[in-house]
């Protein structure tokens, strides 16, 4: 079973994402900000991280840079999932090592399609 | 596959109140007369929903009134048929197929072809299929060549073609099948929409073509994609169309159908391709 860490400061979004991901056969864990997510990844890295951009404590971007700089042995796929839908943000995310990008609002099909693209669904 | 029944299941309680089964029969017959498409059983319940905007535009109250109007006006009939057509698509739908098509075009190159490879997307909907081809060809450098591939994209629906030509997609549409790097490379944001760059759209030649009634484009093709179009046609129509496609496919060319479609048991004009898994080639080599 593939694992996905959902990182979002909104409990509602985490719940929606969890529900969709579970129907796609993922084992899901959650984090409310980048710092929590990083800690979780250092303990046990998931296959995929679904990552919000704007969060308190540590943003999605700071998390992503830290993750790519970290010594964890695997390379989790990182899929941004954010309302930052402008080209500049998308380019910056790719530059920082994001594998895919979901523009909110999203639905099941969008998420499934993006996970397929990164070879995870 | 037997033809899906046009009758609605009254027990489901989803029938538009103001309309009778007769009305539904008239509306679905309009669709079939224009496109050969029979309404799939699993889309019947959508009839009222998809026709609502048409009713609103025309200032009509009921489906009965619309059915009557459509019988007296070709333009209104066209709108009804357009609204009832299944135009679902996505970028790089069944992604592996696109790689095979690009491989087929590359292997033509290897034969030192002295003409442009010709590809036809028949039933192109809003243009995701031909745009996917154009992106892939461009990325593989096929268009750097003196003789870039020619892409013809056709659909029976003028409305679908207008959208295809505009290259404009909603945020939901752009996220179906299109890798983000390709979106960044080939599209520009415009408000909440994403618009394919002119240099990409320009590579595609769009035209209206009804596969049931119109002759194919002139000349022969190396690749024909006719995916998820023939599903709801009667078996006779499907055979006729496949046979006609065979006449415009070059020997050695390939036919691409949708993931759930086959030519087996439909026509003798094609056989499974030996080179490309899931694709078809003309059964008879013409001299
Ligand atoms: C479900 S879409 C498939 C789009 C694309 N080929 C794909 O596989 O994603 C089917 C398309 O076929 C078109 N179509 C239906 N009947 C047709 C006909 N008789 N002649 C030409 N196009 C037709 C519809 O308008 C629609 O855009």
Automatic annotation (TrEMBL), chain A:
4-aspartylphosphate is found on 52
The answer to whether the entry has keyword Phosphoprotein is: yes
Q: Which UniProt keywords apply?
A: Phosphoprotein
Concerning Pfam families, the annotation shows:
Response_reg (PF00072)
Response regulatory domain: which residues? 3-119
* Matching SMART domains: REC
Q: What is this protein called?
A: Response regulator
Organism in which the protein naturally occurs: Sphingomonas echinoides
Automatic annotation (TrEMBL), chain B:
PROSITE patterns named among the record's database cross-references? CHER
- Kindly give the Gene3D superfamilies that the UniProt entry links to this protein: Vaccinia Virus protein VP39 (3.40.50.150)
The record, for Pfam families, names:
CheR
CDD domains named in the record: AdoMet_MTases (cd02440)
Q: Which domain of life is it from?
A: Bacteria
Residue span(s) of domain CheR-type methyltransferase: 27-271
- Know the name of this protein? Protein-glutamate O-methyltransferase CheR
Which organism is this entry from?
Answer: Sphingomonas echinoides
């Amino acid at each position: 079973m593939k694992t996905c860490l959902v990182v979002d400061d909104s409990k509602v979004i985490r719940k929606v994402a969890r529900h969709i991901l579970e129907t796609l056969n993922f084992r899901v864990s959650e984090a409310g900000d980048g710092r929590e997510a990083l800690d979780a990844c250092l303990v046990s890295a998931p296959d995929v991280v679904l990552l919000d951009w704007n969060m308190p404590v540590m943003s999605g971007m700071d998390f992503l840079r830290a993750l790519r700089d970290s010594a964890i042995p695997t390379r989790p796929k990182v899929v941004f999932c954010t309302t930052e839908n402008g080209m500049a943000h998308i380019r910056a995310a790719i530059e920082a090592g994001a594998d895919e990008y979901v523009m909110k609002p999203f639905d099941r099909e969008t998420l499934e399609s993006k996970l397929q693209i990164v070879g995870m669904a | 596959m037997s033809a899906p029944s046009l009758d609605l299941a009254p027990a489901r309680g989803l029938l538009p109140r103001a309309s009778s089964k007769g009305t539904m029969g008239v509306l679905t017959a309009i669709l079939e007369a224009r496109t050969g498409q029979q309404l799939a059983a699993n889309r019947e319940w959508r009839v009222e929903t998809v026709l609502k905007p048409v009713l609103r535009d025309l200032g009509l109250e009921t489906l009965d009134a619309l059915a009557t109007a459509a019988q007296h006006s070709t333009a209104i009939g066209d709108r009804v048929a357009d609204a009832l057509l299944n135009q679902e698509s996505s970028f790089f739908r069944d992604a592996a197929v696109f790689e095979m098509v690009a491989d087929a075009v590359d292997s033509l190159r290897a034969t030192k072809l002295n003409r442009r490879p010709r590809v036809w997307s028949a039933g192109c909907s809003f243009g995701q299929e031909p745009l996917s081809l154009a992106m892939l060809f461009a990325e593989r450098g096929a268009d750097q060549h003196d003789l870039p591939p020619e892409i013809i994209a056709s659909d029976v629906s003028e409305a679908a073609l207008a959208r295809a030509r505009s290259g404009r997609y909603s945020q939901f549409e752009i996220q179906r099948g299109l890798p983000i790097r390709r979106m960044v490379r080939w599209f520009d944001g415009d408000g909440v929409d994403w618009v394919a760059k002119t240099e990409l759209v320009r590579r595609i030649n769009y035209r209206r073509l009804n596969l049931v009634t119109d002759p194919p484009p002139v000349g022969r093709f190396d690749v024909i994609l006719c995916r998820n179009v023939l599903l709801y046609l009667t078996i006779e129509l499907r055979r006729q169309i496949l046979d006609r496609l065979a006449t415009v496919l070059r020997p050695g060319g390939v036919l691409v159908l949708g993931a759930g479609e086959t030519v087996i048991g439909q026509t003798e004009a094609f056989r499974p391709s030996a080179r490309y898994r899931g694709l078809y080639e003309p059964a008879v080599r013409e001299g």
